[in-house]
Each structure stands twice: as structure tokens, then as C-alpha cells.
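Hi there, hope your week has been kind to you so far. Thanks so much in advance, here it is:
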Amino acid sequence: MEPEILELESFLPYRLYRLADTVSREFSKIYRERHGLTRPEWRTLSGLGQLGTMTATELGEQSAMHKTKVSRAVAELERRRWLTRTADEKDRRVEHLTLTKAGLAAYREMVPLAKAFERELLARLSAEERAAVVGGVAALEGALSAA
């Protein structure tokens, strides 16, 4: 009996990973050209821009990044003077991260570019395909969060 073979090209988790990576790389060209940011730096900047003050642990959870990537991104954004760290009064091991005025300005400049990228990406699809993609992603997120 022949061993079963997994065809990655038709395996949904692999296809979703490849698609997400391709979309992320395409979008990264915008913030890399504009600000010289890496993907972890962009995720850190956008997380803080959206949610305000956070800890590195919270950023890692929100952005699904490993703590070493968060740490490097935080260090680089701090070097640029785009974020500040404030020690927690109750637990000195915890630092609260906040965007500076310069960091917030960079984030606000990127928001319309990010929204335009998303619009242009979705514009490549028909209305029915857009609805299917948005609904399908939401359904998978819901199914996995319930598990």
C-alpha cells in the first residue's frame, strides 16, 4: 500500500499561510519605502496606534509575534524616538509602551495608505468574491476561536 501524500498546494492551512504571507509582503513594500520599517516594527507601530498604551506581552498577543520580534521592534522604534517605555509602578519588570508624537504622526500617515491597499486588493475581486472572502475569513476566525 502506498503511503498517503499531502499535496501542499491544495492543503488549506498551507494555502492560507502562503496567501497571508504574499499579502503581507506586498503591503510591507509601502511602509518599508515610506519609513524603512520591518514587518514587526509596522505591527508594533500599528498596534500601539490602534490601541494606545500596551505592554510588550500584550503587543505580542495582539500581533501574534514572538517576544523576541516584539523586543527588537520596540528597541528600534524607541531608537527612532517613536515610542517611549514607562515602568509599571507596581511591577518594575513590566513596561508600558506608548507612541510619541513622531510615532503617532507616522502611524496616522500610514492609516490611509493601509486602507487604500486593502481597497485596491479587494477591488481585484467581484462583489460576490469579496463577500465570500470576508465571510469565509470571519467564519474561520469564529470557528477557531470557539475551539
